[in-house]
Every structure is written in structure tokens, then in C-alpha cells.
Design goal:
The complex is a heterodimer of chains A (237) and B (452). Chain A is α/β, with parallel strands linked by helices and 237 residues long. Chain A has helices spanning 44-51, 74-83, 100-109, 115-128, 144-156, 174-189, and strands at 2-13, 16-28, 33-38, 59-64, 67-68, 85-89, 162-166, 193-198, 210-215, 218-224. A 6-stranded mixed sheet of chain A has the order 6-7-8-3-9-10. In chain A, helix 3 (100-109) crosses helix 4 (115-128). The radius of gyration of chain A is 18 Å and the shape is globular. Chain A starts with a strand and ends in a 13-residue tail after the last strand. Chain B has 452 residues and is α+β, with helices and mostly antiparallel strands. Chain B has 2 domains: 3-54 and 307-450, no CATH class; 101-270, no CATH class. Chain B is 59% helix and 16% strand. The two termini of chain B are 27 Å apart. Classes of the chains: A alpha/beta (237), B alpha+beta (452). Chain A binds chain B through residues 49, 52, 54-55, 74-75, 78-83, 87, 89, 93-95, 97, 106-107, 109-111, 115, 154, and chain B through 1-2, 4-5, 12, 16, 347-348, 350-361, 445-446, 449.
């Protein structure tokens, strides 16, 4: 699914260089549930942004089914984000003046779906996530958990190959976090590749195939989960 | 992304910030309103001038005058008399020629009196040139009849109606005017501090002319009342009479010194001005050359219209510039609004990019918002401009009618002006939106998603 080699990202702040990522090598298999944990500033969110094609690396390469990200044009990168990648964030990032349904529909707008198709699929996705009766509400009228589920619906509605989640439960209470974690587990078991960035050691610990530890821009360790590798018999059960 | 969604999203964003949008649109409304009003005024004036030139056939008209005008050339000037008019009538390309003779008089009808300028016209005038509309009666049938045609305005001044005055007799009195004229000439010459001998000599000429005067009053039957066409630099007067009764009458005009000198030199039959109607407009230059070859001066209305068009072009540019300045100020308002909007919606831009929006699509979205501001402002501005021009036109017409001048349309809003103002308004708004839209498109999505 992903093949990352020697990935480095250096930010310049005045005369100071900040090495957010420092030669990261990583392979992500299709259908894999990968957790990345680390302290603030360890580079995990930077890695996610680079994989999403929202940022460009200083050096190194990310190979995706669509090609090497660094070699893609702006339009190709936008297409990659529109069709291949779904993203959820800690702060939900919903557009406040649009309803839940309109927020979800927006994801399909850029993937070229027709208006009637967009509405139908967005309604279905919201219903699957238990938000059918909240579709016409604005984010401000929803709880944190509901907002994150709307954000998840927006990420999933275009049926992406890869879900990138950056601290998705950071603003949620424990029960809601557990519900989100369960949802991720279900999605992964249906074949969705997930990269979950979190500093919550418990979140997804049981469901993930692997957990990477990051510190100062490097992968400093890896834990194998109890689940079998993706694609092997019994994994999707 | 489909255009309809773009419009819907952009319109939704503008509607959400109604007050700010309304204030920005108001700037465009004022700009386009000012531009429309100014340009419709320019278009109205130009069309009125062109229409009057057309309605009076002025583009196929030449004025002919005796040459000279300077004191030393008067003695040798070619006389514009009836014989000369006959020669001009024979020239190739000339359809009709008549002398433009006028004289000041006092018109008396029943207990009403009015100071008028009477104009002598041949009876054949109406067969060759446009007079206007006969409201009652008819034009005089022959050059010798003691008849007169009055304008509707003249009848109004006499507090009568066209139908009721036809058949009545009016009187034109001239004597007092001459005496007054003599006094004006003498006092004018003295005011110039000329040697007393020169002033006396000039006074002598006037007295000599006065001594040759014919009858000092005319009795004429009103044979018709007409709505007489008016024109720039050329118009018929309110009292028209045939040459027969006017011959021998003092026709001294004090508004034209050259006419005075011309008449003193040859009081019998000399004309100060003649009007030539051309068979074809294109012949104007050739006919003018032929007439000037006879030793006379000519004046072409076609040339005058060309000069006026140059003047109108400058006028258009000036009024257009004033309107454009107003629109430029509105454009700054659009830039300000859009930049504020982008700052407030930075996170939204980041979200859109994370969902797969291309830079070009973000740019188009913000350009669409600027364009919608321009479109709404232009449409409402056109309405404002039209409304203002209608009000001003109404006021102008009331003033003209109040002063006895035929009402004229000063404002015109042709379709090309409507479309031009729309395109210009939207174009300026789009140009104003270029920088904010480019800034939005350049927004770093990672930074934008962290933006509060």
C-alpha cells in the first residue's frame, strides 16, 4: 500500500533547522492497521501529512498505488487525496456553517460524484454511523463524539483505500473514544488500511497489526500486535 | 467540480456574511450606477444631436455666406443676391436653395403682443425641406400671399390654440426696432472710443438705411400653425412668412454686424445667409468647392457633426473615467472583503484541500465570490443608474418645457451600454478578486488545518 524510504522533513524557523522527520523507512501493507505513537513533536503528524500529500518532504520518497507522491503534479496529488485517502483529525475540522450532510457531501464533490449520488451516499454513510437524525444539524449542535463520527463519515464516504487518523480521540471522553476505536477495528476488518497517530497507548492497541514508536523524527521501535498480518487467513474474521 | 456547485458554495458564503457582502456590493452599485448615469447621459446627448441632424436633414445641408467680413474686403465682396442664388441652384448636386432672412419685430394679435424674430421662407420650402408637423391650417401656398405660419410655441405665448388662431390677422411692427437699433449702434461705437467722425459716419449709414425703409408694419393672415423642428445651430423661427410681403420691409438685424454692412452696401436683394440642400450627402465637399469658387463662403453641418463627435469622444472618456474611479474604489472594497474572508476561512481552505480540492478550484471558488459581488453590484448599479437618469431626465424636461424649449431626451441606455456595464462591473470585480484568490490557492493546507 505504502513504501516509504529515507523520508526526511526539515522545517526552517529563522536560522534554526527543525528536523521533524529524519530518514524514516516504512512499509504499509494493504489492509494493515498501523498505530504510530509518540510524544508531541516526535514527527508522527508530519509523517501523516506527508503520506496524505498535504506536505512535501525535504528528501526521501513515498510510493503509493498512484505513484511516487513527490513526482505527482498538484492536480494528481489533489486526485490522490480526493479518491485514495480519507483523513480524520483531533479537532474534527468540520466546516461550521455547513450541516453534517453538507460536510460529508463535500468529500464527494472533489471526487467527481454527481449531486444526487453525493446526497444519497452521504446520507447512507451518516446512517451507518448512527447519525441519520443529525444529518441536518450544524457541527455546533452536535456533541464531540457526533462531530468526530461526521468527520469519519466524510473520510469514509468516498470509499478510500487508506484512512489517516491524527489523534482522532484527543478531544473525546473515554466512552466515545472506545466507540471510535471499535469503529476503526470494524473498518479495518472490512479491508480498510488505517494509519492511526495517537499518544493514547490504549487506543487500538488490541486491534492494530503493528505499533510504531516515534521519537525526534525517527522510528525508535515496533510492536507486533496479537492479530495476524493483514491478508493472512483469519485476519478479516 | 461542476460550475453549479461553485456558484452555490460561493453564493452561500456571501449570503452567510450578508452585511459585509451588502456593503461591498453597495460600493459596486455606486460605481456602476455612476458610470451608467454618466455614459447614458453622454449617449443621450449624442443620440439627440445625431437625431436632430437627421430630422433636419442637416447632413445634406450647406450654409452659404458672402465672403470677407473684414472692413477692407467688404467693398469687393461677392453679393449673395437672388441672381447668385439662381446660379447656386444650377450647380450640380444642389437640390434646393433659399435665403435665410430674418428680422426682429413686435407681433400684435388682439390684445396680445410679443417680441419675435420673423423668418422669410419661400413657399416651395415645404416641398424641399422638413418643416415639422402642421397642427392646424396649411403652409402658405405662394410667395406673394400676405400669410404667416406660426409655431405652436408662438401660439402658446399668445395664449391661444392652433385651431382658433388660424384665419385671424396678426400685425408685425418694425419701426421702433429700427430707432432702437440706431441708438444701439451709435452708443456702441462711442463706447469703443472711436473718433467722433467715424461714429458720425457710421450713424449716417444707419440713418441712410432708415430713410430707405419700406412699410414699418405688416398685416398677415395666419394660414397655419406648425410644430417646428429645432436643431443645433440651425432652426426655423416662430414666425414664418413668404418673401412677397417681406420685400421692402426693413430687415435689419443687429445681431450680425456683417449683415448690417452687407445691407448698407446693397440694401436691395442682398442676403446674409442662404441654405443649400444637397441631392446627396456625399456631394457636400464637391458642392462646397463649387460654391466657394463663386467667391462665397460655405459652412458644412457634416463637418460640424464630425467635430462634435470628436468632442463627444473626449466627453465620453472623461465621464467614463469618473465612473471608473468610483468603480476602482469599489474594487478596493472587494479586495478588502475577500482578503478578510480568506483570513477567516483559512481553516476551511485547508479542509477543502485535504478533501482533494485543487489549487485552481480554490482560486476559482474565491474568484466566483468576487464575480458574484460584481454581478450583483452591476445589476443593481444598472438599476440605480437607470433610475437616476430617469429622474434627471424628468427634471430636465420639466425645466425645458417651462422655458418654452421643446423637451429633449438627455439620457439613453442602449443595450450595448447595459451589457458593457455588466461586463465591466464583473470584470473589475474579477480583477479585484485575482490577488485574494491567488492567495487562497497558495494557502499551505498543513498550516491552514492548524489555523484557529
Amino acid at each position: 500500500m505504502l513504501r516509504i524510504r529515507e523520508l526526511t522533513k526539515v522545517y526552517e524557523l529563522g536560522h534554526q533547522e527543525i528536523r521533524a522527520l529524519d530518514g524514516v523507512d516504512l512499509d504499509v501493507a494493504p489492509g494493515e492497521y498501523l498505530r504510530i505513537i509518540g510524544t508531541s513533536g516526535s514527527g508522527k503528524s508530519t509523517l501523516l501529512n506527508l503520506v496524505a500529500g498535504l506536505d512535501t518532504p525535504t528528501s526521501g520518497r513515498i510510493e503509493t498505488p498512484d505513484g511516487v507522491l513527490a513526482a505527482m503534479s498538484g492536480r494528481e496529488l489533489a486526485g490522490y487525496r480526493a479518491r485514495r485517502v480519507g483523513m480524520v483529525f483531533q479537532s474534527f475540522n468540520l466546516i461550521p456553517h455547513r450541516t453534517a450532510l453538507q460536510n460529508v457531501e463535500l468529500a464527494l464533490l472533489f471526487s467527481g460524484a454527481a449531486q444526487s449520488d453525493r446526497t444519497r451516499r452521504a446520507e447512507e454513510m451518516l446512517a451507518r454511523l448512527g447519525l441519520a437524525d443529525r444529518a441536518r444539524h450544524r457541527p455546533a449542535d452536535l456533541s464531540g463524539g457526533e462531530q468526530q463520527r461526521v468527520a469519519l463519515a466524510r473520510a469514509l464516504v468516498k470509499e478510500p483505500d487508506l484512512l489517516l487518523a491524527d489523534e482522532p480521540t484527543g478531544n473525546l471522553d473515554r466512552d466515545t473514544s472506545t466507540a471510535i476505536a471499535t469503529l476503526f477495528d470494524e473498518l479495518n476488518r472490512r479491508g480498510l488500511t488505517i494509519l492511526l497517530v495517537t499518544h493514547d497507548l490504549a487506543l487500538g492497541a488490541a486491534a492494530a497489526h503493528r505499533t510504531l514508536h516515534m521519537s525526534y523524527g525517527r522510528i525508535t521501535g515496533e510492536d507486533r500486535g496479537t492479530r495476524r498480518d493483514p491478508g493472512t487467513r483469519g485476519d478479516q474474521a | 467540480m461542476i460550475l453549479r456547485e461553485f456558484v452555490s458554495i460561493a453564493a452561500g458564503n456571501l449570503w452567510r456574511l450578508r452585511l459585509r457582502t451588502a456593503l461591498t456590493v453597495a460600493g459596486v452599485i455606486i460605481g456602476i450606477g455612476a458610470l451608467t448615469t454618466f455614459l447614458s447621459y453622454a449617449a443621450g446627448i449624442q443620440e439627440s444631436v445625431a437625431a436632430q441632424f437627421r430630422s433636419l436633414s442637416l447632413l445634406s445641408t450647406l450654409h452659404v455666406m458672402p465672403a470677407g467680413g473684414e472692413a477692407d474686403s467688404v467693398a469687393t465682396a461677392v453679393l449673395l443676391d437672388d441672381a447668385m442664388l439662381a446660379r447656386i441652384a444650377q450647380l450640380e448636386g444642389v437640390a434646393f436653395v433659399y435665403p435665410q432672412d430674418t428680422f426682429d419685430a413686435r407681433l400684435v394679435w388682439r390684445d396680445q403682443t410679443s417680441s419675435v424674430t420673423a423668418q422669410v421662407l419661400p413657399a416651395s420650402y415645404v416641398q424641399n425641406r422638413q418643416l415639422g408637423t402642421m397642427l392646424a391650417g396649411r403652409f402658405f401656398a405662394a410667395d406673394s400671399v400676405a400669410e404667416v405660419v406660426l409655431s405652436r410655441e408662438m401660439v402658446g405665448r399668445l395664449q391661444s390654440q392652433p385651431d382658433s388662431i388660424v384665419g385671424d390677422t396678426i400685425r408685425l411692427e418694425l419701426a421702433n426696432r429700427l430707432q432702437l437699433g440706431k441708438e444701439v449702434v451709435l452708443s456702441g461705437l462711442r463706447a469703443l472710443d472711436l473718433p467722433e467722425g467715424v461714429a458720425l459716419q457710421a450713424g449716417h449709414f444707419v440713418e441712410m438705411f432708415a430713410s430707405r425703409m419700406g412699410p414699418t408694419e405688416l398685416e398677415l393672415v395666419v394660414c397655419g400653425v406648425a410644430q417646428i423642428e429645432w436643431g443645433f445651430g440651425f432652426r426655423l423661427n416662430h414666425v414664418l412668412l413668404p418673401p412677397g410681403p417681406a420685400s421692402g420691409v426693413d430687415r435689419l438685424s443687429f445681431s450680425d454686424p456683417f449683415e448690417l454692412l452687407s445691407k448698407i452696401q446693397a440694401p436691395a436683394g442682398g442676403h446674409a445667409l442662404a441654405v443649400v440642400t444637397l441631392e446627396r450627402r456625399a456631394d457636400a465637399e464637391a458642392v462646397a468647392d463649387s460654391i466657394e469658387a463663386l467667391g462665397l463662403r460655405t459652412f458644412s453641418f457634416a463637418g460640424r457633426l464630425a467635430e462634435m463627435r470628436k468632442m463627444f469622444l473626449i466627453f465620453d472618456l472623461i465621464v467614463g473615467l469618473i465612473g471608473t474611479i468610483a468603480l476602482a474604489v469599489a474594487a478596493l472594497g472587494i479586495v478588502n472583503t475577500m482578503v478578510m474572508s480568506i483570513t477567516e476561512r483559512t481553516r476551511e481552505i485547508g479542509i477543502l484541500k485535504s478533501l482533494g480540492a485543487e489549487d485552481q478550484q480554490i482560486r476559482s471558488l474565491f474568484l466566483m465570490e468576487a464575480g458574484l459581488i460584481g454581478l450583483a453590484g452591476s445589476l443593481l448599479g444598472l438599476g440605480l443608474g437607470w433610475g437616476v437618469s430617469r429622474v434627471l431626465s424628468f427634471i430636465a424636461k420639466r425645466i425645458m418645457i417651462g422655458q418654452g424649449v421643446p423637451a429633449m431626451e438627455f439620457f439613453r441606455l442602449p443595450i450595448y451600454l447595459v451589457l458593457g456595464a455588466l461586463v465591466f462591473g464583473v470584470g473589475v470585480a474579477l480583477i479585484a478578486g485575482l490577488y485574494p484568490a491567488a492567495r487562497a490557492a497558495r494557502t499551505d493546507p498543513v498550516q491552514a488545518l492548524r489555523h484557529d
